[in-house]
Amino acid sequence: MRYLVTGCAGFIGSTLTEYLVFNGHNVVGVDSFTGYYSAAQKVANLKSVHDHKSFDLLQKDVRALSTPDMAGVDAVIHLAAQPGVRDSWAEFSKYLDLNLEATQHILQLCSDSDIARMVFASSSSIYGNQDQYPVSEDAPTTPRSPYGVTKLAGEALCKAYSLNLGLQVVCLRFFTVYGPRQRPDMAIHRILSAAYSGETFRLFGDGSARRDFTYVDDVVQACQLAASSEVLERFLPLNIGGSGDISMRQLIEMAEVATGRTVRLDHQPSQLGDVDRTGADCSRARALLGWTPKTPVDEGLRKQALRISAAL
Questions:
Q1: Contact (CB, 8 A) for 143 and 95
Q2: How do residues 250-303 score in pLDDT, each as one tens digit?
Q3: Active site amino acids
Q4: pTM of the entire structure?
Q5: 144: which of 109, 128, 174, 289 fits an S-S bond (Cβ 3.0–4.6 Å)?
Q6: Is the dihedral of CA 155, 240, 17, 187 positive or negative?
């Protein structure tokens, strides 16, 4: 197949692009190398595929894509977005531009180019806090941050295009993705880096908050299956989560085992928009895509720790 992957130089995007290319597919990768974190890291993420005959890089904003860029594309996997729950309170206009306008533009291009399917990277942030866990896709959506609001609105845009213009859209609701190449602002990267450097890790809250962590290779498998498997629903939201939720205190203990180091903590108040818990019921993804997470958190932590230690 020929895929168009937006955000191809990012954490998930580069891992997906590498997987697709080395499994015989063609990839048109789109990335604008925004300054949210180091562009040099993003360039390094694409090193293994940059000169591959099955990879073409379009260094441009998603909103600058045009119909000719979609030529021959079988499916679009739209990962490009402005991340960050906390920053979304201060820079909401940027989130509207990069998470909503960009999504509407790619949806319109898919429709204009007769592309049958798009995979949209959504987020567990759309759920907010829930009364029962794990959450299914039918749970109420009550995002607690502007970032989560833009992801939920992105899903609504996808549904509107799907219902009115016939585009088949699979919305993958990712639950805290981690692994090698993870963004430097994300908790697991910061915990492991603090373990090796001896610097403190800022722990927001008392450590009781629970998260469902999902290893990046498992997420990549979900993206590829969502783009290529036969599904009957025109609009399909799916939870993509890990192997059960664990507390931040437990995560830090597991990171200490993975690194053989002690993590020094700097306790901070809980942050605006943070939720108490996430936890995914992935039975729908298992039934419709044949997808299940394969990587336990302790194993995934060891793999990410090895990558970080090798870079020191």
A1: no
A2: 999 999 999 999 999 999 999 898 999 999 999 999 999 999 999 999 999 999
A3: 147
A4: 0.97
A5: 128
A6: positive
